[in-house]
Amino acid sequence: MNTFFCADSSRQAGEDIIGSATNHQTYVLIECPTPWAAEAFDSRWVPENLRTLVKEVTQAKVPIRFLLISNGSSHKTDSTTLLIYHRKEKLGHGYRKQEWKLENIEQAATLIKKWLWGKCCDNEVKATATRDILICTHGSHDKCCAKYGNPFYYEATAAISELGLNDIRVWKASHFGGHRFAPTAIDLPEGRYYGVLDSTSFKSILTRTGDIECLKKVYRGWGTLPYPLQTMERELILRYGWDWFDYKVASRIIEQNSDASTIHAEMSFEKPDGSQKTYQGILVKDEIKTLHIKGSCHASKKSLFVKYDVTNLLPIEERLVTYSTEKCEKGLSNQTVPPRL
User: Fold this and answer.
1) Phi and psi of 242, rounded to 5°?
2) What are the residues whose beta carbons fall under 8 Å from the beta carbon of 196, sequence distance 6 or more?
């Protein structure tokens, strides 16, 4: 009997979970009662028209992530919740939410098609919830999401009730990656990913209070950023604290070498008062933290998971002064641009 659990293996290896948040332009979340099949959209309650649409969109490589969601009352309600989260451009907090209450799940495919074509979709509701937190409980896809995800869903529900947070909903969700970090979650509309969660860290995330250092263990990264830049963002969160979550952020990779082992990156942000700041830093592949491990319970072989360390992370004005001083000392022209990698 196979007793291998990928989440246990990852924890024993001391894996740093940052840089594992998946980047999607859009999330389409469809309420569907459990149980779900190993491939979620093969589940018995998913109608054929929705199954076909998901296949067509996936084959066309449209950057949309379809997920099934459920809560404690999904199997007995007389309506189906459909949520679409679409990413904002430029400086932003994350995603824009739209929500509909459908008579049944059979109506989902038609509405999603209209949305994809940019047509007006009727019956949109003004949601009272400001955050939707998805917890992967898809045990038929990976047993760690049953072992750790299912119990944590009930812990999360209890925590939200205990704290009286009526504007936050928690959902069971089908597979969205990172089984080995179970229990794992996505916090929408921001699109930030978390893993290896417990009640204490989850309450801090909900209320944005407590020891910010907990994010060293449980923060997988922000799904709006490229994988390596998620490491840079975590460093800035640790510097600025929970206030960071109110900032509008943009980023870019300035330059990288051929194997992406060294990356020159930039991150800009705007505070609520309108003030702005830009940081630049160098991301270097961390040979010690980079691991060869199995990414899921059913993986037949190990995969390489590259981890980065961020160095020389400074506000751009400080970096320019540094570069300028170095050039003067070496007798070079006093240019105010960073050197190439």
Assistant:
1) -65, -20
2) 7, 11, 17, 181, 182, 183, 184, 217, 218
DSSP state of 107: G
For 209, the 3-state DSSP assignment is coil
Burial 198-228 (b: 16+ CB within 10 A, else e): eeebbbbbbeeeeebebbeebbbbbbbbbbb
Question: Quick one: which of 339, 304, 307, 299 has its CA closest to 323?
Answer: 339
SS3 for 271?
coil
pTM (predicted TM-score): 0.91
List C-alpha distances in Å: 196 to 59, 65, 175.
32, 22, 16
Find, among 225, 234, 217, the residue nearest to 183 by Cα: 217
Exposed / middle / buried, residue 98 (Cβ in 10 Å: 0-12, 13-18, 19+): middle
* Contact (Cβ atoms closer than 8 angstroms) between residue 30 and residue 53: no
Using DSSP's 3-state secondary structure scheme, residue 176 falls into coil
Give per-residue pLDDT as tens, 200-219: 999 999 999 999 999 999 99
For 12, the token pair is: 């024993």
pLDDT in tens, 136-172: 999 899 899 999 999 999 999 999 999 999 999 999 9
Q: What are the residues whose beta carbons fall under 8 Å from the beta carbon of 52, sequence distance 6 or more?
A: 109
Q: Tell which residue, 293, 319, 307, 221, has the closest CA to residue 261.
A: 307
Q: How far is CA 177 from CA 71, 77, 125, 145, 287, in A?
A: 20, 28, 29, 10, 24
3-state secondary structure of 11: helix
CA distances 50 to 39, 46, 107, 113, Å, are 14, 7, 9, 10
Coil, strand or helix at 31:
strand
The token pair at 125 is 């509701």
b/e for 105-143, b at 16 or more Cβ within 10 A? Answer: bebbbebbeebeeeeebeeeeebebebbbbbbbbbbbbb
Domain map (residue ranges) of the chain: 6-313
What strands lie across the sheet with 64-70, from one edge to the other? 124-125, 95-102, 80-87, 26-31, 64-70, 168-173, 131-136, 185-188, 192-194, 219-222
Are 265 and 283 in contact by the 8 Å Cβ rule? The answer is: yes
What are the backbone angles phi and psi of residue 35, rounded to the nearest 5°? -80, 155
